[in-house]
Amino acid sequence: MTESLFSLAGKRVLITGASSGFGAHFAAVLAEAGADLVLAARRVEKLEETADMVRSKGRHAIVVPMDVSDHNSVADAFSSMPELDVVINNAGISRMGTLDSLEEEDWDAVIDTNLKGVWMVSKFAVRQWRKDNRSGNLINIASILGLRVSGQLPPYTASKAAVVQLTKSIALDYARHNIRCNAICPGYFETEINRDWLRSEGGLKQVKRVPFHRTGQMQEISGPLLLLASDASSYMSGSIIAVDGAHLCSSL
């Protein structure tokens, strides 16, 4: 009974930013739970590696080129998208610097990917679900930096805080259509986007401030993902789940 509660058998899941990091890990976890995957990102050659891994687990995988910061790219991807049950907005980037040192192109790149991208992908998914009169499930990957702040990351923290509020807005507006939307706020996990920083002097100091005194292991985000992606969370919408080793609870 418990195993079937978290099963994704018969579900098709779209993951953006599926070429590496959380996205590739999510694909493996969901495939093992029985899901078929639609994998989207800009780097198609890396997507093929993720797709091969999914297929090695006996599940179907479709590769879709998509730049979530480009409206035409997202529209084109959805024009031939198969029927979806779950959409995971995972694509994200960062630019480090103080407010006055960042260029406009840095700000726009982060906001367009991390926030506008979530809006666009969610919009097309919701339109399809409403057109087909089907239920739907959106999962947004935000960050604990959308709930607290860290230095020299103004566009990243602003974008992730906005994703938290957008998650709640979607949950409110589409509950009557049986479309759910929740968010996961990871703490510090080593991925391609932050690996160099975490190994720097500043990064090592930050990790020491985590009550667990370490970064998260990838498998430690698998449970929250399966909860939100499966019917186990059927009465959850607008929930924001932090997976951070109690970092948000650390004293000021």
Overall description:
It is a single chain. The protein is of the alpha/beta class and 252 residues long. The protein has a single domain (2-242), classed as 3-Layer(aba) Sandwich (Rossmann fold), CATH 3.40.50. 42% of the residues lie in helices and 15% in strands. It contains nine helices and seven strands. Strands 3-2-1-4-5-6-7 form a seven-stranded parallel sheet, sandwiched between helices. Helix 2 (21-32) crosses helix 9 (222-229).
The number of helical elements comes to 9
- The CATH class assignment is Alpha Beta
Strand order of the largest sheet: 3-2-1-4-5-6-7
Main beta sheet: strand number and arrangement?
A: 7 strands, parallel
Give the low-confidence spans: none
CATH architecture: 3-Layer(aba) Sandwich
How far from one another are the termini? 43 Å
Q: What are the secondary-structure elements, in order, as H or E?
A: HEHEHEHEHEHEHHHE
Shape: globular
Task: Summarize the model shown.
This protein is an alpha/beta fold.
Q: What labels describe this entry?
A:
252 residues
